[in-house]
Design a protein that fits this description.
The protein is of the alpha/beta class. The protein contains 8 helices and 15 strands.
Length: 311
């Protein structure tokens, strides 16, 4: 089968590799242009570009996929199918209509739940216990196309965003291969999504990580896991941003929300008669350290307030 692959993040790499290993001819890999990254702001290739170079595949990096020259480049490739995994641009109808088997997207949720840019993060942050991957047809509306195949998995009670992504990426790759084989054989019946069940997972913003201490400890804990590593879950301590990197929820009604106690280890009160026991913290501009090292270095006192100044 002649294929074009469109993707950018590390999550997309196993699917590209699986497509090649399956024996399909990947005529073109389309990924986002190199972007500045790291402290030195050095131009850095996407994870998909790096994999495509390793595999010896032709690469195309248009600034805008809607540009006429991008459509022409795709027409020259004459793909039977286009596979999309986290590409990062809206695909126009002229490209959607191009391949005979359509465009298949690997999406990291059980659609129609968690449409959007950050489904794994929001599933964890919202306390979901199951999620999965879905292959679907691309259409004009965001993640609203017909579903093809699904695979479900449990979310571990301590699992973080990166850990879940590491499991779902190869699962999505396997599901994509099952999907293209089913489409070629005519054995898959696309299913419409029920709009009444649709939920959304918007792109993460820095302010999503701000800890509201009126939430229960479990709710805050889920956001710590879901927003790892960025934007993280953070508060303020003595006027500086303090990231809570690892913690444990407790049933403890002795502390008002946001108030520190040192009586049984470093913890802070949360809403609903709960508290958060801190295990790993990070002051802005510093390294992540254990709660014990934080106590030794900063000497927090009983009754100090977290989140008093939003930074």
């Amino acid at each position: 089968m002649l294929a074009v692959f469109m993707g950018t993040p590390p999550f997309a790499v196993p699917t590209l590799d699986a497509l090649v290993q399956h024996g399909d001819e990947v005529r073109l890999v389309i990924t986002q242009p190199d972007r500045p990254a790291g402290r030195g702001r050095k131009l850095t290739a996407s994870a998909v570009k790096q994999k495509a170079i390793e595999l010896g595949l032709e690469i195309y990096q248009p600034e805008k996929i809607r540009a006429p020259e991008a459509l022409e480049r795709l027409r020259e490739s004459a793909p039977d199918i286009i596979v999309v995994v986290g590409y990062g641009q809206i695909i126009p109808q002229t490209i959607i209509d191009l391949p005979r088997l359509g465009i298949v997207n690997v999406h990291s949720s059980l659609l129609p739940k968690y449409r959007g840019a950050a489904p794994m993060n929001w599933a964890i942050a919202n306390g979901e216990t199951t999620t999965g991957v879905t292959t679907m047809r691309i259409e004009k509306r965001l993640d609203a196309g017909d579903m093809l195949l699904k695979r479900e998995t449990a979310i571990g009670p301590q699992e973080t965003g990166p850990e879940l992504a590491a499991r779902l990426a190869p699962a999505g790759a396997e599901l994509l291969i099952e999907t293209i084989e089913g489409l070629a054989a005519g054995s898959i019946t696309p299913q419409k999504q029920d709009e009444a069940d649709a939920t959304y997972a918007p792109i993460l913003k820095r302010e999503d990580g701000w800890i509201d201490w009126q939430r229960s400890a479990t709710e805050i804990y889920n956001r710590i896991r879901g927003f790892d590593p960025w934007p993280g879950a953070y508060t303020s301590f003595r006027g500086k941003r303090l990231h809570v990197r690892r913690a444990r929820p407790l049933n403890d009604a002795s502390l008002p929300p946001g108030i520190i106690s040192m009586e049984l280890g470093l913890r802070a009160g949360c809403g609903g008669g709960t508290a958060l026991q801190f295990d790993e913290l990070q002051i802005e501009g510093k390294q992540r350290i254990s709660a014990d090292d934080f106590v030794r270095g900063y000497r927090p006192a009983d009754g100090e307030v977290l989140g008093e100044v939003r930074t």
